[in-house]
Design goal:
Layout (H helix, E strand, L loop, with lengths): L3 E6 L8 H5 L5 E6 L2 E6 L2 E6 L6 H11 L3 E5 L11 H21 L4 E3 L8 H14 L4 E5 L1 E2 L2 E2 L6 H10 L2 E5 L14 H20 L2 H4 L5 E3 L6 H14 L1 H4 L15 E3 L5 H11 L4 E2 L15 H5 L4 H16 L2
Helix pairs in contact: 3-4, 4-5
């Protein structure tokens, strides 16, 4: 059965040393040390990555081995560079977008690309979104769960959502810069606890801020099975009902009413969790996503879905049809 993976990350093998170019910051670049590919944050090691993070030929072999027909390529969130000066953020965004577009143009039967934009400056973000959609022919963008600590409900982002809606530009929201990260460095807690909470933060912000109400045709998908949002929807709704003076200040609509208005990926790692999000979100709003090629991802993309007893028509939706609907393809 066909499989489309909406949640995969890629980076260029060669990047400028933007720290030297711009004269500030901790921009990421890639260096080889002792036969290891090292993401350097300024002059410090940030993370070692495997060659399949940038080597398309290895990526294709992995896809063939696991039966993935198409990957949706997006940049690694640490490369968003929202903290940079706007013009420099635009510079780096264009570099990553051109790299993804080139990978897609060489292997269009294997890849679909979505871009990144400098959301620290809405006008520049819209300009680059238009280039991604109209020139690079990308169906969407990946954005962070917050922009320099500012929630996605902030009205400053509304012109961006409006233009995305007009362009039919799909959005993939990925957690990053997790709240409380500095307070829980041990045990990998930012990734195990912070990321799920960060995704729920993004979903709740967009719901309570009225984003889905104001932009009803905006196509948004959230990473990691919606994070902690599905498991806490009862608490979220209860809070809305008992303290509307605190919760419903920008949007009077029950948050549960927005289930079915957005997509989540399938990356939950657990059959019971998969049954739960299926019951909550419905079979039309979950897309296969693996977080390839990182260790917290699903090693064999789509295996959890394929191992469960869903009817073939439902499996088809989860494995590829919902992805096409979200992307508008």
């Amino acid at each position: 059965m066909k499989k489309i993976d909406i949640h995969t990350h890629i980076m260029p093998e060669r990047m400028p040393n933007w720290v030297k170019k711009f004269g500030y910051g901790e921009f990421i670049h890639l260096e080889q040390h002792n036969c290891k590919a090292c993401m350097m944050k300024g002059d410090k090691l940030f993370r070692e990555v495997e060659p399949n993070c940038f080597d398309v030929s290895l990526r294709k072999k992995d896809m063939e081995a696991t039966g993935v027909h198409l990957q949706v390529l997006s940049t690694i969130p640490v490369l968003f560079n929202y903290w940079a000066k706007p013009a420099d953020g635009l510079d780096t965004s264009r570099f990553f977008n051109d790299h993804i577009a080139e990978a897609v143009s060489k292997e269009p039967e294997f890849f679909i690309g979505i871009g990144t934009v400098p959301l620290q400056d809405i006008e520049l973000a819209i300009v680059e979104m238009e280039r991604c959609v109209q020139v690079l022919k990308m169906p969407g963008l990946e954005i962070g769960s917050n922009i320099n600590g500012i929630n996605l409900s902030d009205p400053r982002f509304f012109p961006f959502y409006k233009r995305a809606e007009e362009l039919g530009c799909s959005l993939f929201v990925h957690p990053w810069e997790m709240m409380g990260e500095n307070d829980m460095q041990r045990y990998w807690l930012p990734w195990l606890v912070g990321m799920p909470a960060e995704t729920s933060r993004a979903i709740c912000s967009m719901i309570f801020g009225g984003v889905f109400e104001k932009f009803p045709t905006l196509k948004v998908a959230f990473a990691h099975g919606g994070g902690s949002f599905p498991a806490t929807i009862g608490r979220i709704e209860h809070g809305f009902q008992v303290r509307p003076d605190l919760v419903a200040i920008d949007n009077p609509v029950n948050p549960r009413n927005y289930i079915g208005k957005f997509w989540i990926d399938s990356l939950v790692h657990d059959p019971q969790a998969m049954h739960f999000i299926m019951d909550l979100m419905g079979e039309d709003k979950i897309c296969m996503g693996s977080d390839y090629p990182f260790p917290l991802g699903e090693p064999y993309p789509g295996k959890l879905i394929q191992d469960m007893s869903f009817p073939s028509a439902v499996q088809s939706k989860l494995l590829y049809q919902n992805a096409l609907e979200w992307l508008g393809i």
